[in-house]
């Protein structure tokens, strides 16, 4: 075993949470190091989120990671809800006093942050798998990790678990010291990329008795599309024609409307889950992003919650670095959990309002349609959705 290396903040995971935290700490002059299990190509091509809240856009711009986002991102002023063969558009700036969202894929955010980090630091090790986090309740927590065929140790002042829902950091918190609240859903999403221009200027969320459909996009020439499917669905059972037919049927209107078709790639099935681990801190270990919470993607909150967590955390660690006070760090978990639970509820609301569970009763379907009608006819109900979707201001 080689001699232990030391850093002030050890970060496990080079997803959006770990990479943005490293960027913010580096800019604050705080020594840190990122350990990422997978290789760069894998991390950069993993198809995930697509919608950035205004707050996320602001943070990425402020830390110098916004240049390509500003050039290539698509600023959207609304979304369309479709139900009962009708369409209703929500005008975000009118409903929220000017807020909007940006369509810029998580893959691109990750590429931009990795390029910055490799160019100007801090250290980012790919192929470095954390196998254990120890000493959380000491002043010298340590990460045991495997890299280049050898087991190594990184001692830290703080360890930040940005290693997603299946990472190792959460399990370093003794079971008696953490509580996990969770809910699974009786359906999943089949996601695809289509080499065809989007058939709408903005995203379409479609409720139908055949199931939910989402028409999103990546660029002016690439669409990102999702269909609600039963859990355990094999993407191989969904040839392109079947996907296009189902997308068309679920988003049908009384007026003729057909999405432009094109070849489909990157077919994958994403299970839906809500989960929160409390608290997001134990001694010198802190959790951020999916390592602490998971939301179903219907509300486009996952990536944005990760950004909000690490923005709060970077502020707290910077305050500690400059003043020696742990005041903000001690408040980290409570500060983040208020926003996390708000996003959990909104994601649950969007998911259960828009998806038709195969076992739901006609009564429950009528309740969904009544809720959608309420949003379409009440500016107050529409504003509540728009405020949550575009992102509540950071505390
Ligand atoms: P991530 O999971 O992105 O990153 C964790 C990183 O830690 C990974 O790179 C992993 O390789 C690494 N890691 C794990 N264990 C490690 C170990 N032991 N040692 C070292 N490294 C380790 N959100 C949306 O808003 N919209 C969507 O459409 C959407 N689609 C999604 C599709 C899928 C398949 C998944 C899984 C999630 C999706 N999400 C979506 C949510 C997603 O965007 C997350 O919220 C976001 O990736 C959270 O970022 P991180 O917390 O950085 O976690
Ligand atoms: C996406 O483009 O991947 C996306 C957009 C909105 C969502 C979920 C996913 O609610």
Large-scale geometry: globular
Q: Helix/strand-derived class?
A: alpha+beta
Percent range for helical residues?
25-40%
CATH hierarchy, class of the largest domain: Alpha Beta
The H-level CATH homologous superfamily of the largest domain, spelled out, is: FAD/NAD(P)-binding domain
Report the biggest beta sheet as strand number plus sense, adding barrel if it closes: 8 strands, mixed
Mean pLDDT, rounded to whole units?
Answer: 96
In angstroms, what is the radius of gyration? 21 Å
- Residue stretches low in confidence (pLDDT < 50, at least 5 long) are none
How many distinct domains?
2
CATH architecture of the largest domain: 3-Layer(bba) Sandwich
First-residue to last-residue Cα separation: 44 Å
Count, helices:
12
Short description:
It contains twelve helices and 19 strands. With 395 residues, the protein is α+β, with helices and mostly antiparallel strands.
Would you kindly provide a written description of the structure presented here, covering whatever features stand out?
This protein has about 400 residues and is α+β, with helices and mostly antiparallel strands. The chain has two domains: about 230 residues, 3-Layer(bba) Sandwich (FAD/NAD(P)-binding domain), CATH 3.50.50.60; about 120 residues, D-Amino Acid Oxidase, Chain A, domain 2 (2-Layer Sandwich), CATH 3.30.9. Helices cover about 35% and strands about 30% of the residues. The strands form three sheets. Strands 1, 2, 8, 9, 10, 11, 17 and 18 form an eight-stranded mixed β-sheet that branches. A hairpin with a 6-residue loop joins strand 13 and strand 14. The longest helix is centred in the last third of the chain and has 23 residues. The model has no long low-confidence stretch (mean pLDDT about 95). The structure holds arabino-flavin-adenine dinucleotide (FAS) and P-hydroxybenzoic acid (PHB).
